[in-house]
Amino acid sequence: MITLISFLVILNLFFLYFFKNLSKKIALFDKPDGIRKLHKKKVPSIGGFFFFINLLAIVLYLNFFNFSGLKFFLNINQFNLFFFFSFIFFIIGYLDDKYNLNPNIKLILFIIVIYFFLLTFPNWIIKNLNFSFYKNSINIQEISYFFTILAFLLFINSFNMFDGINLQSVSYSIFILMFFYIKSNFNLFYFFLIFPLFVFFYLNYKNKCFFGDNGTLLLSFIFSFFFIDFHNNKKSLFADEIFLIMLIPGLDMLRLFIFRIIKGHNPFHPDRNHIHHLLVKKFGNNFSLIFLFSLIFLPNILNQFYSVTFFLIILSICFYFYLIMVCKK
Fold first, then answer.
1. How many C-beta atoms surround the C-beta of residue 155 within 10 A?
2. Which pTM was predicted?
3. pLDDT of residue 38
């Protein structure tokens, strides 16, 4: 275990030190357009590469050294397949960053990959929903495939759309992984995945690196995998707890989809009406981050102490729309 920790620390320090050289080699940049992308110069969009290479390092360690040391929830063959599907999402994100893929093509690719993933991992098909405020499970066997694919798609798209200002998505990602780390009784695997996010956090704070779709698609697929595992297999997360964690990105995506459809636009057509854009325009970057973090983190932290998920969901929805109205004035 010390070997893996040492290697990950060295690996991420290497990323940090040789970042400029790596970004030139990968040559994947987010260029300003003066409309949606208002940064002053092109910025490397290689955040997903940091995370992916760290995940690859953990895969190699588990295959060649000590798999049992992490008390993992998959056998080695399953873990390698999980890595393979994660790699596919990483590649789709990379191609989207490089060639700006058509949203409809991306959606079809997502559905195909998720469908084959569920054939490979049948225990990740959501057949029952368990809620903290209802003692019986709700059986959705008849629509289980459709519902599970939809759940993946909703989180993947909402997470991708939530990536808008510096430190926003990376802070949300660190929060989710720390949540899994605690919920898993401190399984180090989830903690190790935070290492590359610390590096990215620093670079993103300095406006030197963005996640890019290669990062958001990779992370959102992995997080979806974990959420379903904690609900279906570990039985340590209720559906409403997951809903609370995903609420603000999902709610913002729903509002934007409705807004765009009313205006006759493609729901995937990008704009600057996301909550983070509205907050930045009204309050500036720093206060926007404070509002967003409060809106996401505080309800979930309170829920771990008081277990009033339904009440916190309603409260969060009300506060979200209150912020939207304030920003629109």
1. 22
2. 0.94
3. 56
